[in-house]
Amino acid sequence: MKIQTMRTFLGFLFAVFFLAACSSLPAETGPATVHDLGLPVAAGLAPSPLPLRRIEVLGNAALGNLAMQYRYAEDQTTRRLNYADSRWSATPAQLLEGVVSRMLSGPTQPSRCKLTVRLDEFVQVFARDGSSAGYVAGSFLLIGERADEVLAQTAFEARQAAPSADASGGAQALRGASEMVGKQAARWLATQDARRCTAG
């Protein structure tokens, strides 16, 4: 009886260890959903009134990856959160550069100037009532021939309501906000002296 009891006990211990090992394995998850800003906007929707040799968007360190970020407007801890099952197809700076470049595109002209967009925020912001909006903020800089030749600069921000409180809704909202940024850039460039950008 003692041998049989020992075998039963050992069998019980084996079953316990096996179940514990199985429960410690990471849960299987599907591949992340990849988002972009939708089909390309038509070129020349807000053509630049200044000749530009280049348009570039530079994102800060927090935006240097593919994470789709969101935050809560009422959260006093300043937490920046990421969707676990969704990501961008490119960095926010690359996505915004594509939108703005196409919107401002026009006839190619020689120019001394480039437009640099410094991107500080590209995030979905949730309000207390559960609604959310895409928020994009940063600054425009008109740069001359030298990298340190800042001819003009100004801050910008754009906000677009999201159609749904999820990653897909955030992507749609950030597309709308990005198009607002392109239009703001065109209006700001129209206030600048084009003679400073004329090559030669």
Polypeptide structure, described:
Strands 1, 2, 3, 4, 5, 6 and 7 form a 7-stranded mixed beta sheet that branches. The chain contains 3 helices and 7 strands. It has helices at residues 2-23, 92-104, 167-189, and strands at residues 33-35, 54-59, 67-72, 81-88, 114-126, 132-143, 150-161. The chain has 200 residues and is of the alpha/beta class.
Radius of gyration: 26 Å
What is the molecular shape? elongated
Indicate the structural class: alpha/beta
- What do the pLDDT scores average to? 85
Distinct helical segment count:
3
- Tell me about the biggest sheet? 7 strands, mixed
Let me know the number of strands: 7
Low-pLDDT stretches: 12-28
Cα separation of the termini: 103 Å
Helical proportion? 25-40%
Secondary-structure element order, N to C: HEEEEHEEEH
Kindly estimate the percentage of residues that lie in beta strands according to DSSP: 25-35%
Give the gist of this structure.
The protein is an alpha/beta fold and 200 residues long. The protein has 3 helices and 7 strands; from the N terminus they run αββββαβββα.
Task: Please name the defining characteristics of this protein.
single chain; 200 residues; alpha/beta; seven-stranded mixed β-sheet; 3 helices; 7 strands; 29% helix
Lay out the secondary structure.
Elements: H1 2-23, E1 33-35, E2 54-59, E3 67-72, E4 81-88, H2 92-104, E5 114-126, E6 132-143, E7 150-161, H3 167-189
Parallel strand pairs: 1-4, 2-5, 3-5
Antiparallel strand pairs: 3-4, 5-6, 6-7
Helix pairs in contact: 2-3
